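In this section we walk through a basic example: taking a raw amino acid sequence and producing a predicted 3D structure, encoded as discrete structure tokens. The instruction is simple. Fold the sequence below.
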Amino acid sequence: MTLKPLADRVVTKMIEAEETTKSGIILAGSAKEKPQIAEVIAVGPGEVVDGKTVPMTVKVGDRVITSKYSGTEVKVDDVEYVIVRQSDILAVVE
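The resulting token sequence is shown next.
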């Protein structure tokens, strides 16, 4: 099954956070923060405002930073994705 986002939605896959700190301390699962960096998997066509389509500014393959608790989590074929609006994307990581 594939996900095809609608309007200004973006399908992302979260990039796992490191399990150790810089000093070498291994973090327990409950001590880890929710990752905010994700890879863009699919992009919708853009939102329609006043009859004109607003183009999307991200593309498939971009690494992005999303709002901490934004989006809808979905699981497809045992892979977890988060569907967010383009406005929930704060920056592109280069």
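Looking at the output, two observations stand out. The CA atoms of residues 34 and 88 lie 15 Å apart. The first strand starts at residue 9 and ends at 14. In the next section we compare this with other chains.
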